[in-house]
Design goal:
By secondary structure, the chain is an alpha/beta fold. The protein has helices at residues 6-9, 41-53, 72-90, 108-120, 166-178, 183-191; strands at 31-36, 61-65, 94-99, 102-104, 128-140, 147-162, 196-199, 204-206. Strands 1, 2, 3, 5, 6 and 7 form a 6-stranded mixed beta sheet that branches. It has a two-stranded antiparallel sheet with strand order 4-8. The relative contact order is 0.17.
Amino acid sequence: MHKLNYAATFPHWQSPQLSLRCNLQWRSFAKVAVLFDMQEEALLATQCAVLSQAGISAEQLWPVARASGSNGRLAELQTQCMVLSEAQRQGWRNVLLFDAGFQLTQDERVFTQANRIFTSLNRLDWHALLLGGHYQHFSPLLALPGIARVHHADSAAAYAVNASYYPVLLNAYHRAIEHAASLNELWPLLMGKHCWLAVNPGLVSWRDNNLTPVPTCRPAGRERSFRFA
């Protein structure tokens, strides 16, 4: 695993500032794996500084270099497997995977809503929780505003996995690798059978100085017919 002392490489006086005054209740997550490309360590440093400012402790932050290779979707699945395998080995109660290419949206209402969801996780029976992405088919939960049961979504911008789901998801990812399938082809098959939840509206946005959240819907693509779990 790649480790980086982001405080040393990204001095405090250079750290970008969040415009919001409220912190998120990140203690609901055992670890926050920040996924980055090896050639973009400066971006990693920026992301870690912002996440730290948003309330994530140094003990929670875990920089993870992506697997390399010419096949992008294979490398993505290998990276996800690496994170989940380590989370399972360490016995973490959950792990949050956060793509360094995305950023937290600057919306205090979304932050407040996300805090209610985060503090309720220990009372929910959940397998995975999306903090953002393309939600193509979902059903809002009336008991907890701002959260939905998602049936079809893609884009692994930021999502958490509960410990009880580690072996299931790892098995599914390994089988996807065997079948040369992508994460986006696999997810809808899992969502149809297991409890995947989503923060709605999403908590992350594109990292291009555009604070628009990741779109919550787009035309659905064709699905593969493999069984992964």
